[in-house]
Amino acid sequence: MVKIEGKSVFGGVAIGPIGILKKKEKKVVRSHVDQTEEEIKRYEKASKEAEDQLQALYEKALEEVGEANADIFHVHQLMLSDMDYVESITNMIRMQNVNAEYAIAMTSDNFSTLFEMMDDDYMRARAADVKDVSNRLIHILSGREDDPLQGDVPVILAADDLAPSETVQLDKSKILAFVTRYGSANSHTAILARTMNIPAIIGADFPEDCDGKTAVVDGETGCLYIEPAPEILHQMEEKQQEEQKKQEMLQTLKGKEDVTLGGKKINLYANVGNVSDVMIALKNDASGIGLFRSEFLYLEKDHYPTEEEQFQVYKTVAETMAGKKVIIRTLDIGADKQIGYFDMEPEENPAMGYRAIRICLDREDIFKTQLRALYRASAYGNIAIMYPMIISVEEVRKIKKISAQVRQQLSDAGISFGEVEEGIMIETPAAAIISDLLAEEVDFFSIGTNDLSQYTLAIDRQNPKLDTFFDPHHPAVLRLLQMVADNAHKAGIWVGICGELGADLSLTESFIRMGMDELSVSPAMVLPVRQKIRETNG
Ligand code: PEP
Ligand code: MG
Hints:
Layout: E1 2-5, E2 7-10, E3 13-21, H1 36-65, H2 67-80, H3 83-96, H4 100-116, H5 121-141, E4 155-159, H6 164-169, E5 175-180, H7 188-196, E6 200-202, E7 214-218, E8 223-226, H8 230-251, E9 267-272, H9 275-283, E10 289-293, H10 295-299, H11 307-320, E11 325-329, H12 357-362, H13 364-377, E12 382-387, H14 393-412, E13 421-426, H15 429-433, H16 435-438, E14 444-447, H17 449-457, H18 475-490, E15 494-497, H19 508-514, E16 518-521, H20 526-535
Parallel strand pairs: 3-4, 4-5, 5-6, 9-10, 9-16, 10-11, 11-12, 12-13, 13-14, 14-15, 15-16
Antiparallel strand pairs: 1-8, 2-6, 3-7, 7-8
């Protein structure tokens, strides 16, 4: 048995085989082949397999995110069988006696360059699709030792680190737990693990040869046991059963109100990143969605999501929540959430750089497309919109001007939309300090403690080395929370917390005393927080 100590991100026990995720980029090497017809058969077999994979992905996406979003996999299927594409590959194999991987990589480069040079936006966007389809083929051809989720058996997924864009693409039904060597407890990947409600540890330096070996992840202590000794296995199985019992007890809280012993009602909502998370939020009996991180919609795609694509997603969420509040945050990319097709320049300090509302105010086309989709979807449920990374009253006024224009355009076109509450995230010290002024401009505040803590304490949330310096209960942050709550109430608006701190059970009572009206937490934390609220005198 090998015991490796890491840091807990999310509790629970997982037992199963380890699957190491290696990075997707494969270096394609040119090699000489004599048997070109055999090589073409190899390519055709891979193409058939890619076709099957895409069909499976289409069906999964259809169920999870609707037809408009699933269609991309049909586009990829068409591309696979496109005559020009197929002929380019097979000709190259025959004429140049090269291996299939190389012929595909060259064809991919040539075709994507051609697409990128086209005037038409739609055709330009196809460049990314060609690359994607080609990478899929190359992966199949070069073996899939780098994709541990191909098999039927769920695995403990081990990786160096996971970017949010990688995490969203993983088949969650095949993951028992996450173990990473790097990454920080406050990163978006950690947040995703919590949303998925599976054990997760970071900073665990697992050996390369543990791939496929049986292991136990104890998410509570942050320990990974590879080939566990029988007594550890037994102990962990018992712990798993206890967890199970605790979960069963929590289930009895479903349908109960989020009211303190003193009769104060708290709106207990869930944080989600996509439509399937919404189902998890409902399963955990959240009374609403307090933070829909809309950027994951952009991260999952290889092109700017169209108004229609976004509308379908927001409408689905609004309808699924059936009149319960759904607070959708406008695009918050930049920093650790990078998207290739946005073509952003590297920055010295991305966390304090070109991100979130700054991009939206700079690139109004992207912003307006999202706002149109949001307002249109508001006709189908109780949608509220919230803006991230605000630092000034001027920004809020600019946003209000743009959103008024969007509403006017919709009205002029006879397109209906609902009453939409508009709020801002308080996640910069600047916003907290001028929250009295900002409160006059908006309908609500939602405090993003993840960023507010990072900027207040000058502690990069991505840097695991700083975890020991990070005090989530730092009085500076708690004082700002109190100040924001007071300023919100003075102006007669509601205030809540949607950062990870909102789920810190040791602070629930303090938050209620501060006057927080809402707490929005990862779906798995809804019932534990409900339990805490109901035990609080307040
Ligand atoms: C936050 O900063 O607290 C927040 C909720 O936003 P995100 O974690 O997505 O930056
Ligand atoms: Mg934030």
